[in-house]
Amino acid sequence: MEGKRVIALGFFDGAHIGHAGLLNQCRAVADRLGVRAAVMTFDLHPDTLVAGVPVMLINSKADREDIFHRLFDIDDVIYFHFTEQTMHLSWQDFIDDYLIGQLGATHLVCGYDFHFGDRGAGNPQRLMARCREKGIGCDVIAQTTLDSITVSSTYIRSLIAAGDMEQARRFLGHPHLVSGIVEHGKKLGRKIGSPTANLTLPDSVQVPAFGVYATKVYVEEKEYFAVTNVGNNPTVGGERVTVEPWILDFSGDLYGKRIRVEFYKKLRGEKQFASLDELKAEIQKNAEETRAYFA
After folding, report:
1. Residue 92 contacts residue 130 (beta carbons within 8 Å)
2. Helices 17-33, 61-72: crossing angle, 10 deg rounding
3. Which of 108, 158, 188, 221 has the most beta carbons within 10 angstroms of its beta carbon?
4. Distance of CA 66 to the CA centre of its chain
5. Does 198 score more than 70 pLDDT?
6. H or E stretch at 282
7. What value, to the nearest 5°, has the Cα angle with vertex 171 and ends 74 and 163?
């Protein structure tokens, strides 16, 4: 079965509990057939091109890939280059020439609402029928609900925008995360005893509600608790939106290293303090709250 794959189809923003059914099924079938488990996703959210409006995403491309590999043991992540030309590919050619011909699909897995091909004419029913004709397997995964709410990336984005990380974690099935390379900041944290690692969010990623969060930070896959500020630091006249974890019980140089920040609970909203001493006292209080939360 050299070069053959089981392929899960979709955009998978957030890789939430609804997507987990597809990804776990993809891995299980690949293991049964002795082939590679792959995700076929898009380099650009299709709505961005179709509607002409950029879609704010739960995860960056790098973070989506990390979740596929680390949480779902997916072997290959393949990007379909979404352009004016490729969006007019017929649904039949998408299956025959691209998925089977180019990617070596021997089994396909999609969600109940997956549409593909020119004007979205391809749907799960047509996919199943075509796979039968071609002699390959196909699974369609049903809709997932939680608390009578349909699990969707759109709903989870709204939770992140509101800072409700505990509810977001239930719907994602894992903590909301951002990762990036640590940059030089204003180094104010050092002066008040809480040095932070600075990350800048990509423009396309949904910004969590401004405020301070109890988080975990992973440095070379070692876990630390952290107090993380999301915002533009009004007390010191900040402008850019940054994610700034103060990593508790860590010492060392992080500049230029990639870290992962996982969000668990919002501790407070963003506020402007009258003095740096007031800010320092509040951050120390947030550190105690963070330790208590994870205890």
Report:
1. yes
2. 60
3. 108
4. 8
5. yes
6. helix 276-294
7. 115
- Rounded to the nearest integer, the mean pLDDT of the chain is 92
Q: So what's the pLDDT on residue 294? A: 98
Listed by start position, the domains of the chain span: 5-149, 176-294
Of residues 3, 214, 226, the one with CA closest to residue 100: 3
Beta-bridge mates of residue 39: 8, 77
pLDDT of residue 142: 97
DSSP result, 209-232? PSEEEEEEEEETTEEEEEEEEEE-
Of all helices (H) and strands (E), which one includes residue 269? Answer: strand 258-269
Structure tokens at 250: 């860590």
- Tell me the per-residue pLDDT of 177-194, one tens digit each, with 9 for 90 and over: 999 999 987 666 565 567
Output the furthest CA–CA distance in the chain (Å, rounded): 71
Q: Characterize the bridge pairing of strands 105-111 and 149-150.
A: unpaired
Contact 156, 67 (CB under 8 A): no
Helix (H) / strand (E) containing 267: strand 258-269
pLDDT band, very low/low/confident/very high, at 203 (cuts 50, 70, 90): confident
Q: In Å, how far are 135, 198, 203, 236 from 187, measured between CA atoms?
A: 61, 9, 23, 11
What is the CATH T-level fold of the domain 5-149, as seen in this structure? Rossmann fold (3.40.50)
**DSSP code at position 236:** G
pLDDT number for residue 235: 45
The residue behind tokens 């050619």 is 93
Q: Are 207 and 251 in contact (CB under 8 A)?
A: no
Q: At what angle do helices 153-162 and 165-172 cross, to 10 degrees?
A: 160
Tell me which CATH code domain 176-294 carries: 2.40.30.30
Distance, CA of 264 to chain centre: 15
